[in-house]
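Consider the tokenized backbone below.
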């Protein structure tokens, strides 16, 4: 039972309180009536109305004061937004609630609004926290009181266990007993589906509201565990959707300390459900999204999907603007440790020369000299061995020397090569950027020497030069290098592949043309794959040399695991093969268990190529041997 009995602590869900224990005697049944007589059936002011047939007010409406109170509460709740929460709460707390009937009615109104508008469930949860201690005497039990929180948790429990589904049961009985006439059955099936949708929406709204009550300390952890277990064992689509909604609401606060071990079991069961594939694709996607959310430490890729206050929206806009300005500027660094890990690419070319003028028409007889620029940019993939910018002959000579030195690098002569590199004079931003590009390109093109290049970068990490356009600020070799690694990791520059793909998509049906383009497309894909594997191996070497920290590695592993394509999984195997021994220690071991469990699941499903499955098995076996 996820909700404890009424005598438990106030913060646990009690059993429903029956304020109507003493009811008037039942009305007498009139067994025979004449159609000519105008029979007046006895009526009652306290007659109960079905909850689903209420329009806006609770069933019991005693005196005019109670009626007016309910109208005021309806009006106040209809005005609730995140912006005016404080004003609304002042109006609510100013209301006079003195009787059990009034408190039950107000509780019903707040509960119905909360589950009907799940996007505002956080605001309603906060409102309930403010009203939790409100108490009134029980009508039929002098000396005893009932609180708002007791009535509210009783309603939550009743809704959670689906104790009141008259509409659905009625439609189901009508459909079961309906004749074979197709029109009647279609109508009843449509009504049954509508009733099912109402129940599903209410269930999701209720469980989200329960989560908000837990976040405001009105429910304790055992009640949440009971809810999760109940939803997991039901195994139907509606229960699993409610489970995802609950974990999305409370996950960050719930997945801590002792609960972590139990949560591992819950998520293992969820992964099993996804792997079996017996649920609908919509539910499988929701489960995968929650599993990924936990892997990202409950930080959503689409944060704050609910309503925001105007103030919060303005604040986020200002932060975003400041972040954009920060990307353009490079802050001075005093220590290597303060260098940004996978920081956004530094825009060192924010101020570029004006574009060259386009010559619209030329005569073939004229010897036209197009204007040139010493700072003209060349595409990175079209460079042969030297960086694009060649400002002066000294810079050109420097790049040639670096190319020559890097071509001679081997593990045996590393010390001699490093003496030559450190003897070079690098004074300008252009020179440092060019040297960084050359080292990075050689490192990912020769992954067999990535360890040597990583060691070289460790020696050059503290090298700094002033930024040309920002007097007083400096940029380091490590900043530029990590920016290049990040850009390559997220595939921000794939012009060759995109060009070949466009040509293939727009190609004619001539088989020779398509075969040629398909071959070029495959070559472009192979280049991208080799660069990705080389880059991730180089990133691993930077981590081993303490130029990247552990969180950056977790981000890489999670990104590659969630992509699920062959290239990403190959890069994942290369990364784990590089850093596994140093990475799979102490605190990271528990997280690594999850990564390898996911990898084992991928192997078991068999949806990847045999080459990738073999690589994954090899890495799994390598960890077992270690």
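A designed sequence for it:
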């Amino acid at each position: 039972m996820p909700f404890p009995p009424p005598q438990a602590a106030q913060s646990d869900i009690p059993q429903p309180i029956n304020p109507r224990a003493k009811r008037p005697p039942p009305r007498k049944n009139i067994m025979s009536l004449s159609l000519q007589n105008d029979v007046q059936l006895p009526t009652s002011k306290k007659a109960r109305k079905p909850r689903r047939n209420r329009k806006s007010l609770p069933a019991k409406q005693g005196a005019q004061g109670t009626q007016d109170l309910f109208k005021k509460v309806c009006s106040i709740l209809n005005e609730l937004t995140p912006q005016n929460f404080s004003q609304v709460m002042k109006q609510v707390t100013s209301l006079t609630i003195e009787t059990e009937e009034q408190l039950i009615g107000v509780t019903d109104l707040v509960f119905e609004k909360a589950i009907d508008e799940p996007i505002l469930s956080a605001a309603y949860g906060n409102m309930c926290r403010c009203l939790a201690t409100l108490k009134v005497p029980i009508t039929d039990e002098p000396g005893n009181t009932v609180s708002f929180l007791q009535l509210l948790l009783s309603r939550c429990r009743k809704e959670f266990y689906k104790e009141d589904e008259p509409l659905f049961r009625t439609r189901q009985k009508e459909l079961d007993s309906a004749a074979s006439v197709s029109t009647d059955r279609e109508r009843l099936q449509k009504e049954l589906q509508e009733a099912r949708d109402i129940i599903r929406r209410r269930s999701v709204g209720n469980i989200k509201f329960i989560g908000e009550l837990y976040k405001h300390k009105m429910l304790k952890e055992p009640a949440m565990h009971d809810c999760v277990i109940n939803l997991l064992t039901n195994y139907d689509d509606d229960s699993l959707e409610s489970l995802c909604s609950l974990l999305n609401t409370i996950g960050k606060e719930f997945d801590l300390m002792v609960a972590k071990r139990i949560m591992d079991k819950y998520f293992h069961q969820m992964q099993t459900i996804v792997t079996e594939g017996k649920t609908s694709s919509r539910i499988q996607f929701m489960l995968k999204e929650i599993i990924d959310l936990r892997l990202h430490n409950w930080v959503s890729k689409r944060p704050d999907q609910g309503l925001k206050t105007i103030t919060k929206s303005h604040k986020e806009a200002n932060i975003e603007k400041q972040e954009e300005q920060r990307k353009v500027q490079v802050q001075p660094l005093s220590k290597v440790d303060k260098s940004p890990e996978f920081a956004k690419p530094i825009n060192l070319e924010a101020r570029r020369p004006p574009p060259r003028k386009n010559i619209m028409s030329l005569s073939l007889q004229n010897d036209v000299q197009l204007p040139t620029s010493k700072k003209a940019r060349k595409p990175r993939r079209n460079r042969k061995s030297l960086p694009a910018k060649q400002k002066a002959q000294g810079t050109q000579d420097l790049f040639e020397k670096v190319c020559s030195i890097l071509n001679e690098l081997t593990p045996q002569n590393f010390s001699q090569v490093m003496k030559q590199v450190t003897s070079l004079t690098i004074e300008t931003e252009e020179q440092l950027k060019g040297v960084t590009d050359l080292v990075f390109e050689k490192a990912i093109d020769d992954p067999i020497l990535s360890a040597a290049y990583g060691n070289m970068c460790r020696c050059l990490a503290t090298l700094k030069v002033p930024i040309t356009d920002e007097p007083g600020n400096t940029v380091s070799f490590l900043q530029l290098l990590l920016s290049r690694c990040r850009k390559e990791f997220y595939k921000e520059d794939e012009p060759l592949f995109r060009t070949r793909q466009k040509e293939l998509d727009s190609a004619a049906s001539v088989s020779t043309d398509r075969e040629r383009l398909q071959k070029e497309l495959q070559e472009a894909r192979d280049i991208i794959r080799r660069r990705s594997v080389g880059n991730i191996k180089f990133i691993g070497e930077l981590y081993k040399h303490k130029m990247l920290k552990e969180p950056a590695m977790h981000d890489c592993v999670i990104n590659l695991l969630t992509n699920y394509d062959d290239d990403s999984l190959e890069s994942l195997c290369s990364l784990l093969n590089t850093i596994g021994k140093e990475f799979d220690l102490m605190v990271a071991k528990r997280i690594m268990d999850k990564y390898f469990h996911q990898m084992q699941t991928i192997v078991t499903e068999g949806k990847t190529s045999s080459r990738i499955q073999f690589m994954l098995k090899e890495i799994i076996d390598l960890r077992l041997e270690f």
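The mean pLDDT is 75.
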